[in-house]
Amino acid sequence: MTSVDIIIVAAGSGLRYGAPLPKQYCELGGRPVVMHTINALRAAIPHARLTLVISSEMADLWQDFCLKHNFVSPAVVYGGSTRWESVRNALSAADRPADIVMVHDAVRPLVSRQLVDMLMDALSSDPDVDGAIPAVAVTDSLRMQLGDGLSKSIDRSSMRAVQTPQAFRGYRLRQAYDLPYRDSFTDDASVMEAAGFGNLKLTEGSSHNIKITNPGDIAIAEVLMKLNKEQ
Ligand code: C5P
Which residue's alpha carbon is at the smallest distance from atom 11 of ligand 1? Predict the structure, then answer.
């Protein structure tokens, strides 16, 4: 059986959100967002080895949440000051990477089994593929800002918005994370590409796989969760 590691990054401070707690700890359907994320991934790949990356300052809070909700935490690794550093810490905590390593944002609790299956299929169907990335078409029109209030339009038909989890050949991801940090590393695909592992296949993302970013997003996630249950 293909071995799978899933790294869930939850060490962000969530400053953009403006809530008293980082958004991954905010309550969704009576439990912290990140617990939904962990459960969704446990259900998607039951044999996967999960690692949860949290800020060391949140270690006590996380333990309290687990006790309160009778929740068994995956192995915990402490994160760093950037997402890149958080992923790197998780990768170096393992003796060796699994065949496939997925990295997922804790703030995407509505990830589905179907989306994860498509990533696994993309990697298993072609040994030359370095990774698989869920993406969705862009529905807003796009403009590039040029400065001085000027901008120019961009053809959105070839643009895709990228989601997580992103899935990679484990040893290639580990190698890619040996590169020194660059500001352009906004996700794991960008790190892979910089390391020369650019054979990254886009798979179908989902409009339900939202990234909880703004306060209203919790309410949207509640509605989507309800819809998912009804289907
Ligand atoms: O900040 P951003 O929205 O890109 O964060 C995406 C995910 O990365 C979040 O789940 C956040 O908790 C995580 N992250 C992290 N360590 C950081 C920054 C972000 O684990 N230093």
Answer: 12
